[in-house]
Amino acid sequence: MSWVRVRLRAAPGGALALAALVLLTSFLAVALPLAVDRYQNNALRHAVNHASVHDNSVTLSSAYTPLGSLDDDGSGLSPSTLDDVETSFQQMTHPPMRLTKGQSVYGVRTASEAVAADAQLPRLSPHPPGADLVAQAGLASHVRVLSGRLPSPETGNGGTDGSRYTMDAVVTRQTAATMHLKVGQTVHLSLLSPTPLRIRITGIVAARDAGEVYWRENTDLLKPEVRVPPPPPGSDPKPYWHFALLVDRQAAAAMPLLGAGASLYWYHPLDASSLTAHDVDALRAELASFASGPAATSLADATGVQGIEVNDGISTILDQFTSDRDATQPLVLIASVGVGTTALAVLLMAGGLAAERRRGEVGLLRSRGGSLRGIFGRLAGETAACAVPAGALGTLLALLTVPVGGTGGARIGLPLLLGALVTAVGVLALPLRSVVAVRKPRPPVREDLASARPSRRRLVAELTVTVLVVGAVAALRRRGTGDGADPFLAAAPVLVAVAAALVLLRVYPLPLRWLARPASRLTGAVTHIGLARAGRAPSTNQLPLLAVLVALTITSFGGSVLAGIDHSRDRAATEGVGADARIDARASFGADLAGKVAKLPGAGQVTTARVDAAGPNPAFGKPYSLVTVDPAAYAALTRAIGLPAFPASVFDGDKGSGVLPAVVSAGLADQMGTAPNQIQTAVGIVSVRAAATLPRTPAAPGDEFIIVSARQLAQRHPDVSRFRQYSGPTVLLAMNAPGRQIDARGLRALVAHGSGEDPYVTVQVRSEQRAALTDSPLQHSARRVYLAAIAVGAGYSALALLLSLLQAAPGRSTMLARLRTMGMTRRQSRRLVLLETLPQALLAAVGGVLVGIAVIPLLRPGVDLHALTFGNAPQSLPPVDVPTALRADPWSLVLPSAGLLILACAVLLAQVWVSSRRRESTELRAGERA
After folding, report:
1. Helix (H, G, I), strand (E, B), or coil: what is residue 146?
2. Which helix (H) or strand (E) element contains residue 774?
3. What is the pLDDT of residues 669-685, one digit of tens each?
4. How far apart are CA 32 and CA 529, in angstroms?
5. I want to staple 269 with a disulfide (CB 3.0 to 4.6 A). Which of 100, 567, 578, 593 is the partner?
6. Averaged pLDDT of the chain
């Protein structure tokens, strides 16, 4: 301990520097996995909390059909049966399936919608209103009675109107206002039973809290809904009102009188406050057990209710979360491996720098009989006194700064292990480097010389790294990033950077030595000395170059990922909309719509087309869209939007009769061949031939298509084409005016004014679709962590560069002092230092750019960006097939390298300035090593 105390007092600066480096590195090593866990947990909880009620709940359901059961008295619908199922389920659940306390909703409702044909009820069409009877637990505690009373549990006999039974029911204030219901009014419901069920309205109620899960599980409880059944072909849709009648739980036994049975349900919202990403697999296993496993059997045995199904809407959220996590995890792991490699190199460099400074001291101890074990123990005790407290403090600060709620002790094992690893490297770097240096006695040699031939060990190490690089790149190209937990695949960019560093270290001294020979014939000695010293490659340059190349490679790789995602999203929005703005209608819109759109602020070119959907026929085995266009205008719009050029020239020379030339999609071109094919159009049957092929077209995004000329089609069927409903346009495509943007609000107002509330007329704006293609919370957080890791890696690479310059600073200062005694000026000193050191910095910068460019084609086939790009795509965007791939980003390639060059120049010039202000006697004291 006395040795440690003396050494720390003698050199407190070095001890504090080591402690600061270990503190920072251990903090980052512990904080990174904690931050990943934290953002994954927050993203999962955000997804659960912001999902619909059905999607964030575990729902039990059971169908009650009295005709197929022995419980013809309706006991299967009794409140005690539902309460038993609820109690048993609550008792059988255990973490990680945590249910929100007091928020469970369960009850009974009619299995099918009944018809309420009473004349006093309002109608939206000839279709009569529909209604459901709902007996939900806890009605009295969730409503306020505005008029009348709550329903009674008894059911009475039917009335004189032919009804079989009479039930009491209440309705909410919104339902009463919309459906014109009053207290004392009677509603008759009929379904499959020959006699209707008589419902007497006994009260009108209001929800105590409309935001409760009680009212959000079934959306028809609070207010009526407008429903539209699918219309038959050629018929108009017939919307109608649907509403709910709230009855007493005891009266649920009468629901089967309608003839369709009843549905039992139990909704259980999931408590996401303590849910973690690590719980997803266990939660899935428990849900599967309740669906068709031991838990399902135990629940049926405990309650006596058979056929209980688990409709776990939460599985959809878990699947989406798992998909996003699997897509982002490889990228975060790549950044983690990169910054970890850079930090490790810096720690080893710090230990090597300290060992180099104390080489004479350690050599003296060894020459006086000190054992390797004793020297190692003394140096390890000295570094442990600094590194261990610093590592512990950094770990503690990370645990306090980045708390992860719900994470158990087993989940902090990796962060603690990384913190201990950083501390161990900080403790052992100096002792190991020093012991290896004095293990065998060596005569003193000049420090600025390198061996003429590298050792065989170095050759073996380089070959080993090369094999690893080839294996990692081949595995990544073949397997892809689907297995995000594979560190070997994640290390592929780092291994490529390591291999590039080894190659550059082998190659770069040769051209400098070749340049030094002709420079020796120049009149001045500065150029020759600078190039000669730069051409010598001591082993101390390996770690700085490695750290810098790894950081630059990870930065450029991350930039290529982000650039590839942005480019694919831009293309998806462009191909999905087909223009800057788009209007789609089921029927032909007015002839003046295009003119009105062209007058909107910011509108430029406007083109219309007719798109008719066609199903498979004997000629084509797949559905397609028939697109009728004006070829010249459509070609101009295609050029403006940047899609493949439309070949309008194929429509030239048509004589107005015979086979129509057509531009078809690649999928249909193979089936059509070169022979004419008959197709059905809105104006009649025509024969078409494939005159040209396009991979995609603006009017029919994501579909197979056949494009014909509107004028030529009208010439084949002039009589029918006169009617606008058969030949008029159904799609309008508008481009922005130069330097402006179309008024989306005005466009929607114009369409709404012309079409009213027609749900079959839609408006899409490319900028809005592009804005909707944003990162999910998980992807956004992963991007932030990735960028933070890149920034940390850049900081460590700058620190590595500074350490390499600092390591050579004493020898450089001594050399400058000696040359100044021979008459070297300050200007020549600056030139000499730049010539000596800048080639190495330039090597790292240019090497980083070249490696970053090379990594993209090497790893592009194995990096799948589709989930990252379209994992959160809007439903309104057509399913266009847009390729996703890495894309070079010039800024991420050039800016970091330029920054390192500027930093190196600034440090070197500062060193020359400081050295020039010292006296030569200070730098050249007798007996000291240079």
Report:
1. strand
2. none
3. 888 887 888 888 888 88
4. 46
5. 100
6. 81
Contact by Cβ (8 Å): 603, 742? yes
Q: How many CB atoms within 10 Å of residue 709? A: 23
Query: Do 660 and 686 contact (CB within 8 A), yes or no?
Result: yes
The two three-digit tokens of residue 730, written as one number? 């159904």
Report the pLDDT value the prediction gives residue 755, as an integer from 0 to 100: 58
Distance of CA 488 to the CA centre of its chain: 22
From the list 442, 425, 417, 97, the residue with the least C-alpha distance to 274 is 97
Pairwise CA distance, residues 56 & 50, whole Å: 8
**676 Cβ contact partners less than 8 Å away, ≥ 6 residues apart:** 659, 687, 688, 689
pLDDT reported for residue 397: 93
Model pLDDT, residue 420: 93
- 476 vs 860: CA distance, rounded Å: 9
- In this predicted structure, what is the pLDDT of residue 609? 92
Please measure the distance between the N-terminal and C-terminal CA atoms of the chain and give it in whole angstroms: 32
pLDDT tens digit string along 541-579? 567 777 888 888 888 888 888 888 888 888 888 888 889
- For residue 679, the cross-strand partners are 686
pLDDT number for residue 801: 78
Q: What is the pTM of this model?
A: 0.78
Q: Give the residue among 814, 818, 809 at the shortest CA–CA distance from 837.
A: 809
885: nearest Cα among 858, 913, 923 = 858
Residue 839: what are its φ and ψ, rounded to 5°? -55, -35
Name the H helices within 103-225: 139-142, 173-179, 213-216
* Cα–Cα distance for residue pair 600/605, rounded to 1 Å: 11
Length of the chain in terms of residues written: 930
3-class secondary structure, 188: strand
CB 720 within 8 A of CB 727: yes
Whether pLDDT at 731 is above 70: yes
CA 319 to chain centre: 14
Q: Which residues pair with 706 in a beta bridge?
A: 626, 664
**DSSP run (H or E) holding 895:** helix 890-916
**Mean pLDDT in residue range 207-232:** 86
